[in-house]
């Protein structure tokens, strides 16, 4: 038992280092994780009238979530290209199990997602300096107003969204042989999920129609988004939407409920990712 545990840890570490070196050597990695999210953050902030001191922590949280979606593209393109090369074949022939490999690549991409999240916060600070007037409160002051317990909920939401992105990227790359088709499908799915997760469109608009709200529950990212929204709202529903009594409030504003459903989605998607993954494109 002990020898098996030591062997597992050794294989995991070796795979982690191998995956890290392979991914970090590619300039595309930095485009996916940093350049594209920064560009989208800039466009998103401009679309919303600029980052200003009137933004509540709930609004800033939605900005923070944007970089976490980028991980899905990195996972998808990496696995898709590896399956069409000898990279995975060599790992598999070395006696590495599917579990060991997936854990290593998921661990690396999870850390990459956290780094992208941190870069996103730094980008918010810079955008705040560009948009804010001298008399307005800084973005740092707004972020510092978030309590420790609220940050725990936000980080939990960020972590779940990264894991959801990794799982979706793994599933798509496992089911689609063509790299180009896999990436195209990923773009469509992520765009669709962002729209219906309440991360892009105004929540007040989405909350008008009960059918749309019910349909959006099938979007995995919807759950992680609302974990962060509820956590950062300081028990004030009006920070999320105006005139909430006239609208459909997702998850009945219940943090415990959405925390459970969000975790459930991660588990289900992880199982799907495991069974969809193959060492190559041969069926």
TrEMBL record:
Asked if the keyword Lipid biosynthesis belongs to this entry, the reply reads no
Give the transmembrane region(s). 30-48, 60-80, 101-131, 151-172, 184-203, 253-277
Transmembrane keyword on record: yes
As one GO molecular function, the record gives: ATP binding
Q: Which UniProt keywords apply?
A: ATP-binding, Membrane, Nucleotide-binding, Transmembrane, Transmembrane helix
Q: Which protein, by its recorded name, is this?
A: ABC transporter ATP-binding protein
Protein source organism: Spiroplasma diminutum CUAS-1
């Amino acid at each position: 038992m002990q020898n098996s545990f030591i062997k597992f840890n050794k294989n995991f570490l070796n795979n982690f280092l191998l995956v890290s070196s392979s991914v970090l050597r590619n300039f595309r990695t930095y485009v996916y994780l940093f350049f594209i999210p920064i560009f989208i953050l800039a466009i998103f902030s401009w679309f919303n009238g600029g980052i200003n001191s009137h933004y509540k922590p709930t609004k800033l949280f939605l900005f923070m979530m944007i970089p976490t979606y980028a991980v899905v593209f990195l996972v998808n393109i990496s696995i898709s290209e590896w399956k069409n090369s000898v990279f995975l074949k060599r790992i598999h022939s070395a006696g590495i199990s599917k579990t060991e490999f997936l854990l290593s690549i998921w661990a690396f991409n999870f850390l990459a997602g956290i780094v992208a999240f941190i870069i996103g916060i730094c980008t918010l600070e810079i955008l705040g300096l560009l948009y804010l007037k001298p008399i307005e409160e800084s973005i740092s002051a707004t972020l510092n107003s978030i309590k420790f317990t609220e940050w725990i909920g936000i980080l939990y939401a960020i972590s779940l969204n990264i894991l959801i992105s990794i799982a979706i990227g793994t599933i798509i790359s496992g089911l689609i042989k063509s790299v180009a088709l896999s990436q195209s499908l990923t773009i469509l799915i992520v765009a669709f999920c962002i729209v219906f997760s309440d991360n892009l469109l105004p929540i007040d608009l989405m909350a008008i129609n009960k059918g749309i709200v019910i349909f959006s529950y099938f979007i995995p990212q919807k759950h992680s988004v609302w974990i962060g929204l509820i956590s950062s709202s300081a028990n004030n529903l009006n920070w999320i939407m105006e005139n909430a009594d006239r609208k459909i409030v997702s998850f009945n504003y219940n943090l415990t409920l959405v925390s459970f459903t969000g975790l459930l989605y991660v588990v289900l998607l992880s199982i799907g990712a495991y069974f969809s993954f193959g060492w190559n494109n041969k069926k």
